[in-house]
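hi!! sorry for the late reply, been swamped w classes. u asked for the two structures so here they r. pasted raw, havent cleaned anything up. first the sequence of the first protein and right below it the tokens
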Amino acid sequence: MKPEVDHGKWSGDSAGKLIELTIEYAPEPPYKSGRPELADAETLVTANQFMTAEFAASAVLQAAQRLKTSSHRMAAISACSR
């Protein structure tokens, strides 16, 4: 006999659904939302908002790093040309 598992124990069912969809866990998803076509509308909206914010923040950090690297290169080139 399989023990009963409380899948939403730590953060609740909504968080479980969101995580399941975000990582596209679909072999036997406990919340049945591991793929966009399986997820309910509320989970899809939340996942879209979460992913948009996460990817936007990541893109900003990457752009800032490229600018920082470019600034250092430009300063080095400028110093060498004097």
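now the second protein. again sequence first, tokens right under
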Amino acid sequence: MEQPKQVFVIEDDNDLNDALVMLLKLAGYDVSTWLNISAFKRREGPPPDVYLIDRQLDQEDGLDLCRELKAGPVTREIPVVIMSANAGIKAASEEAGASAFLPKPFTRKELVSILQSVLTK
């Protein structure tokens, strides 16, 4: 049996974090979450199969984290999906190296479809 794909979620909204964990686990993913970039950077262990990052985190920018991940030798090939309520940052997310952009609000189907898409590229 194949191991579930690991999703790292960086999202500062507790309620949305909880919803993402529930939706992603129901879809068969293994999920780890962080409320901010500082906490995420303190983690240990192997990288995930995909990152799901909110663009506007409290006092932090998810696009900066995306650029950092895409510059790292271990993480550069791992897909990054940027989430935002601001659809106008789609181009900026692509420039930062994101594999996909997920506009908020989104449905479970849209979320799973985007992850499946970036994981099969």
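hope this helps!! also noticed smth abt the second:
DSSP finds five helices and seven strands in the chain.
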